[in-house]
Amino acid sequence: MDEDERWRDLDMLLMRPGNITGPGFDPGPECRECLRDQVHVLCVGAGGLGCELLKDLALSGFGQIDVIDMDTIDVSNLNRQFLFRMKDVGKPKAEVAAERVMARVAGVAVTPHFCRIEDKPLDFYEQFHVIILGLDSLEARRFMNQVACSFLEFDAEGKPDLASVKPVVDGGTEGFKGHARVILPGVTPCFDCTLWLFPPQTKFPLCTLAETPRSPAHCIEYAHLIQWYAERPGEAFDADTEEHLRWVFEKAAARAAHYGIQGVTWQLTGGVVKNIIPAIASTNAIIAAACTLEALKLVTMCSSGLNNYLMYVGTEGVYTHTVAYERDAACPMCSAGVPFRVRPSDTLQQVLDALVADKALGAKLSAPSVSYGAENLYMRGPLEEATRSNLARAIGELVDGDGSVVQVNDRGLAAPLRVKLCFVDSMER
Amino acid sequence: MIKLFSVKEKQKKEAAAANGLSKAVKQSAGELRLQKDISELNLGKGVSLTFPEGKDKLLTFEITIRPDEGTYKSGAFTFSFNISTSYPHDAPKVKCKTKVYHPNIDLEGNVCLNILREDWKPVLSINSVIYGLQFLFLDPNPEDPLNKEAAEMLQSNPRQFEHSVQMAIMRGSSIGTSYFPPCRG
Lengths: 429, 185
Ligand SMILES: [Zn+2]
Known about the structure:
A: Structural Genomics Hypothetical 15.5 Kd Protein In mrcA-pckA Intergenic Region, Chain A, 3 domains, 15 helices, globular, B: 5 helices, binds zinc ion
């Protein structure tokens, strides 16, 4: 098959102008070449969603794909993580997935990274034009969100600098339900703007677990949260160690027998302890397809993209719905930060006084505390004494330079306020 | 759009080089929220807080509660707090490091406090948890026990319960099958 024949369907999208194309769409053969040679996409996760995403990306013309995953292949993955075979059990998911996709799709380069996402430096993430997430935990999503938002820069008027926007496409599934969303930090809401979308996990009261267990899950949680620490003190529980899980399962089964409770199984034990929701292959396929299309739209603009959250519910019938969520103007991750002019020689005390005296900001501030990244420059409350000496230091010494964003906290504020320090000459201000 | 990528990238690199800002991964949103919680903490009388890893590592700390009335008067009870980066989506993990005879605290230091588990909400704060813990010492609840023996004694013989607890705080003593070292604060 020649290249034109092979990409006939893709060319339908990329070779012709249309009425619903996105801004700046420039149809032509360069689109496909660029997708193949220049666009660099990162797929985070090589599990249920990840396998689908990698296959979809490769078959949609993306030629430079990296995949990162810290897991190794388990027998229980094989029913839906179709890039893996029995002989691959125990090998790193990222490496096997990369090899399999390259073997099946000619011309695509897939680079695996068998490590934790936290182990890669920011420069690693910066090289990608799109980051696509096939993750199953809120914590990992929040980390990737933080990474994407950390590239974001704003101009003097507080508008996002489009060159610094790192697009993220996020997919997620839970049984028959799923979502796909497009995050353009600074433009569409990030994870932390809409954190409330993630419902809290069900947590049972400890006293119920201890005294009045009624369900198999109660028995498992008791063994996991209470018996483990009582009987194996000082040993950290690791849900991925089979012996640990087996121990919890056996203790839970004994407890269930004691209380006449049925249904503690090995599978349920893993489910409860790791908070696993059954994965359905078709849901993964649907969500991965939606995510890949959004990635394709983002880099080619062959169609205006999803704005900005698609939910899919397959429990009764097939239902999808798109919601344009809004950014949180005070989001701690993606908001611009209020510009505030200071002289580098001003002491921290002078900066605080100026903040409180400021017409706009001062209305909400009475006793501000200031942090710069992890560093608590001045804190009221129990850390007041430990941070007091900074008040006499020049702000220019305490932060990295012009444009540094500090977090200001005050009881008058509902959330941390981001303040962008704009350095001015000693005469100005 | 595609063309924009390469052009943009170049501009961006130049801009970054020009202002020389260090590019560390920012604080997690959980840590940012914790900075707010800690800076606004109003520790009442009888509560102290320490950060064993210093003023810039807020994710682990210890608080000590010294009740000045009630059954647990004159004791000092230390709790370790471990905050995950998903705070405030997830509740702080709290353990009692002082061995105490209490219906809602077991001998391993697990604490049964609703807002630490089933009733946790992101609008709650470290301050709410500290209030909750203080309340546990003023009003131990025998209805939902974690230490059943303690709950039974509190219900059947409140005076003996108070006496046993005070003995343990002041001098250390064995109650039932366990020994409780003194924890006078
Ligand atoms: Zn945001």
